[in-house]
Amino acid sequence: MAAEHAPNASEYIVHHLTHLNSLGHKQAALVDWSVFHLDTLFWSISLGLLAVLILARAAAKATSGVPGRFQAAVEILVEMVESQSKSIVHGDRSFIAPLALTVFVWIFLMNAMDLLPLDALPNIWSWMFGVAGHDPHHAYLRVVPTADLNATLGMSLGVLILCLYYSVKIKGFGGWMHELFTAPFGSHPLLYPINFAMQMIEFVAKTVSHGMRLFGNMYAGELIFMLIALMGAAWAGTAGSGLLWLGGVVAGTIWAIFHILIITLQAFIFMMLTLVYIGQAHESH
Amino acid sequence: MNLNATLFAQLVVFLILAWFTMKFVWPPIMKALDERAGKIADGLAAADKAKTDLAHAEKKASDELRKARESAAEFRSGAERQVAQLIEDARAEGARIVNAAREAAEAEAAAASQRAKEALREHVAVLAVAGAERILRKEINAQAHAELLTQLKSEL
Q: 20 to 30 Å CA-CA from B38: which of A16, A192, A243, B55?
């Protein structure tokens, strides 16, 4: 944060909601395909590597004998994903089940960044930024990749691409086309455009809601952590500010505990919807 | 909220991570799980087999025991029969010996009484001759009267 003057509430939140991007300042246009969010990429790739390396470590040491605690924990996870994918996707799951496992573990880790102290990593970053000779005021950093719409829509877009791939793979291109024009209302030339429009709406709605659901939950959760942090920051030595500070501690504790449920649930929901959408691609109407 | 190229980067990372998991994480874990399931199934089957084997062995053992008991009883009754036979034989032998001894004793006693009678006859004949000598106060020719004496002896 600023050394000279403490930011007001609005400045604090805006600073926290600004991404570290390849521009160095806040992106002006709503959509700009030339810009990267460096913080989102750094944290999501790091956590993704952490996730797959943890899993790979468990896989490398996996034995069919008596499992250790770490192995048993990973196995519980794998069995959970395996049984879910088995009940939802009927067909070859050699890619889909590992995909679901990756989705769950990765998103859980990215969501879990929300549980770190809100200012910890941004402050370290702004210190590093200052040491490197830049203005620490412009050291932006957001540590929860899933609170970035680009990340969640990127993943839901990946799921959409897999849905299309499996639709063609399972039903054949002709079969899939036939389904696009005849489902859900039936095979009649007059109904073709309506069916096709419905299918397109369904694909868009699925993909957008898939990405938006995770983003919305994590963004809202992050925002509430910021508001709670503002309560704690109100400490000024007076009785009223002391009460606010106490409220910040209590609310922060409650929200963090509740958030443990949310981050797990959202990761699980994203995984389940991934399986459901890909499972739908396996079934003909 | 801004949309930008992060979206596509995230999409690519997503697919790469899923591919990595498919390639290096999922197969070894599933293999271990399946192998363990197989081991457990084998173990259960072996336990079942051991149970039936045990039942078989128990049945066999009780059969053997029963057989042994039967043959022991057979041996015992055979031995008892043999002992009874031996006792019977011994008793018969004893009775035979006793009878033989009694017969021998009786025969000996008869012979002895016969000998005594003979001796007595000799003596009676001598006494009679001596008595007759004395009564007759005369010498009697022993040869002349031998026939008479023999007749007298036989009458005794």
A: B55
